[in-house]
TrEMBL record:
Gene3D superfamilies: Acyl-CoA dehydrogenase/oxidase, N-terminal domain, Butyryl-CoA Dehydrogenase, subunit A, domain 2, Butyryl-CoA Dehydrogenase, subunit A, domain 3
Protein name as annotated: Acyl-coenzyme A oxidase
Stated family: Belongs to the acyl-CoA oxidase family.
Keywords: FAD, Fatty acid metabolism, Flavoprotein, Lipid metabolism, Oxidoreductase, Peroxisome, Phosphoprotein
Active site residues of this protein: E422
Domain Acyl-CoA oxidase C-terminal residue range list: 473-654
Annotated binding of FAD, by residue: T140, G179
Compartment(s) where it occurs, according to its Swiss-Prot or TrEMBL record: Peroxisome
TM region(s), chain numbering: none
GO (cellular component) term, any one: peroxisome
Domain Acyl-CoA oxidase C-alpha1: start-end pairs: 276-437
GO terms (BP aspect): fatty acid beta-oxidation using acyl-CoA oxidase; lipid homeostasis; very long-chain fatty acid metabolic process
GO molecular function, one term: acyl-CoA oxidase activity
Amino acid sequence: MNPDLKKERDGASFDPEKIVNLLYGGPDRVKRKRKLESLALNDPDFQHEDLNFMSREQQYETQLKKSIMVVQKQEKHGIMGPEDSAHYVYNGAFKAMAGPFGLHTSMFLPTLRGQATDEQKDKWLKMAENYAIIGTYAQTEMGHGTFLRGLETTATYDPHTQEFDLHTPTPTGTKWWPGCLGKTSNYCVLMAQLYIHGKSYGPHPFMVQIRSLEDHKPLPGVTVGDIGPKFGYAGNDNGFLRFDHVRIPRDNMLMKYSRVEPDGTYVKPPSSKLAYGTMVQVRSFIVSEAAESLAKAVTIATRYSCVRRQSEMKPGHPEPQVLDYVTQQYKLFPYLAAAYAFMFAARAMVSVYFRSMERITRGDITVLPELHALSSGLKSLSSWVMNAGIEECRMACGGHGYSHASGIPSIYAEHTPAATYEGENTVLMLQTARYLMKSYSQSVQGEKLAGSVAYLAGVQPVPVAGRTRDVLDLQVLIEAYQHRAARLVHEAALQLRKEQQAGKDQPDAWNATSVDLVKAATAHSQYFVVKNFAARLADPAVDSSVRAVLTSLCQLHALHGVVNNSGDFLEDGYMTGTDIRQARRHINALMAKLRPDAVALVDAFDYPDGILNSILGRYDGNVYEHLLEWAKASPLNKTDVHQSYHKYLKPFLQANRAKL
Ligand SMILES: CCCCCCCC/C=C\CCCCCCCCCC(=O)SCCNC(=O)CCNC(=O)[C@H](O)C(C)(C)COP(=O)(O)OP(=O)(O)OC[C@H]1O[C@@H](n2cnc3c(N)ncnc32)[C@H](O)[C@@H]1OP(=O)(O)O
Ligand SMILES: Cc1cc2nc3c(=O)[nH]c(=O)nc-3n(C[C@H](O)[C@H](O)[C@H](O)COP(=O)(O)OP(=O)(O)OC[C@H]3O[C@@H](n4cnc5c(N)ncnc54)[C@H](O)[C@@H]3O)c2cc1C
C-alpha cells in the first residue's frame, strides 16, 4: 500500500463501510453487490486483453462473446433484476453499458413489458427474456431524433390483408443510431408513423423482425448495417435500418395502450405519450448512471491526487501531495459532493418512477406530466454535471489523466452521450420548463399545486437587505434554492408573456425566452437535488459520524452552486454581497474540513480496482510501477523495432544521411 494513501485512510473521521451501507441499502445488499461484482471480476472467462489495445472489430467480437457468457452465467448464478445486473453485468463483467446486448436489456425488453398486450407478451417476451431473439429500440432517424412527431418511417395499415406496410421514404428517414442494431439484433421495436386510410396518427411502436433466424441475413426489403466508428461505444454496433415496403401482421403493433382494429378503426390510448414510456424509464435511470460515472472519475482523481507529489509549497520542504493545494481541492471536492448529491437524487428518482408507474398501471395517468418533467430535468442536470466533472477530473490528473491508463477517457467516452441520448439535454430541460410554465399559470389562476412544483405557489418575499443569515444552515440554503427557482420560473413566465404582448406568436415567444426557460428548469432541478440531499441526512438512522461528514458535503454542494450562480441569488436582493462572500469563505473552510476524509469518502463509493480499471485510481496507490507495466503491454511495444521502421523510417533516415 502506498504510505500516503494508508495515512489518508488511517486519518479518516468515519468508517467508510457505514457510508457504503447507506449508499447501497444496507449490509445485506452490500454483501450481494460485492459477491456479484467479484464473481464477474474474477471469472477467467471474462478476462481479456485491455480493450484500449484492440481494434473496433476486436472490441465488438470480445464484447459479444462476453455478452453471451454473461447471459449464460446470470442464469446459472440466479442473477436477475436491474440491481443485480447493474453489479454483475454493467460494473462487473463489462465496466460499461455499451455491450452488444445493451439495448436489448435497457430498452427492447422494457418496451415489450410496458407496451405489449398480454397476448403479445406471451408471444415475444419469453423469447426475448430467454435470448431466443435479440432486439433493439429503433426510433431515431438520420434526419430526426429529437422531434418524434417528425419521424419519416411509415407504418401504413392495409385492412384487406390486415398488415402494416413499413417503409422508409427518404434518405433522412433511415433509422440511425439504435444500439446493437448494426450486426447483433434480429428484431427491433420500431417507432413509425401510423397511417390508416391516409390519416396520420403519429409515432407508434411495432415489433419487427429484421434478420433471418436461420442465417442472420437481413430479411427481404430490409437494409441494415453499422454506422461506423464513434467518439466511444466501440464495442457497440450502433446501426442504420431502412425498409422497402416490408409487411408485418396487424398484431405486430404493440397495442397495450392504442389499438388498430382489423377494419382499421383506431382506438385511442388514454394518453398518446404512454407510447414514450420506455424513454421516461431510461431517463429516470440515467441519473444513476451519471452519478456513478462521476463517482468513478472522482475516485480516480482523488486517490491519485494523494499519491501524486508535485512542486514545492514551502521552499526546501518535500513536494506536497497535490490534493493539499486548495485549488486542487476546489477542482475535485465540489464534484465529490455532486456525485453524492446525484446518488441520493437517483434513488429518489427511481422511487418516484416506480410509484408513478404503479398508479399509471392502475389507470391513473395524471402523474405522467410530473414524472416526465422531473425525469427530464434530473437526467439533463446530472449528465451535464457528470460531463463537466469527468473532464475536470481528467485535467486534475495532469498529463497522466489523458492516458487510457487513467481510466478516465473511457469513462468519459462511455458516458458523455448521456447528455444526448434518450433526449438531448436542452430539449428535455425545455420540456421541464413547459411543465413549470403550465403549473405556474395554474397557480396564478388560483389552482392549488402539489408535488415537486407546490413551491411555485408564491415567490417568497425578499428579506430585508443587510439581514444577517447563516448561509451554512441547510434550511437557509434550501430556502434560497427554492426562492431562486420560484423567481426564475416567475420571471421566465413574465418574459414569455411580454414577448407575446410585443406581438410574437406563442412559438416565437417561447424560442425568444428559451434561455431563461432552461435556466428556470435547471434551477428547479437543482432545488430538488439540494432538498433531497438534506432530507436524506435528516433520517435518524444515519450514523452520527456519517451525518457529520455528509452534512459538510451537502453544504459544499449547495454553497458551490450558490457561488457559481451568484447572479441568480443576488439579482433580486434575496442574497447579499455579504452572503456570497461568506459562502466563499465557508467553501474554503469546508474543503479544509473535508480534506482528511477525501480518500475515505471516495473509498465509500466502493468501486474495486477491477471496476475502476485505472492505474491512477488503484486502491493500493502503487501507480508508477503499474504505469510502466501497462505501457509495456501496448501492441507497439511487442518488438523493440517496429516493422514500419524497415518500411519507411529506415530508408528515409538513410536517404537524409546520404544527402549530407
Ligand atoms: C435500482 C436499479 C439501479 C440500476 C442502475 C442501472 C444503471 C443503468 C442506468 C441507465 C441505463 C442507461 C442505458 C442507456 C442506453 C440508452 C441508449 C440510448 C437510447 C435512445 O437514445 S432511444 C431514443 C431517445 N429519443 C428521444 O428521447 C427523443 C426525444 N424527444 C422526445 O421525447 C419528444 O419528442 C419531446 C420530448 C421532444 C416532445 O416533443 P414535442 O413535439 O414538444 O411534444 P409532443 O410530442 O407534441 O408532446 C406534447 C405534450 O406531451 C408532453 N410529452 C412529451 N413527451 C412526453 C413523455 N415522454 N411523457 C409525458 N409527456 C410527454 C409534452 O411535454 C407536451 O405536453 P404539454 O402539451 O405541454 O402538456
Ligand atoms: C451513443 C448513442 C446511442 C444512441 N442510441 C440510440 C438508440 O438505441 N435508439 C435510438 O432510437 N436512438 C439512439 N440514439 C439517438 C439519440 O436518441 C438522439 O441522438 C437524441 O435523441 C438527440 O437527437 P438528435 O441527434 O436528432 O439531435 P438534434 O435534435 O438534431 O440536436 C442538435 C441540436 O439542436 C438542438 N435542438 C433540437 N431541437 C430543439 C428544440 N426544440 N429546442 C431547442 N434546441 C433544439 C439540440 O439542443 C442540439 O443542440 C443514440 C445516440 C447516441 C449518441
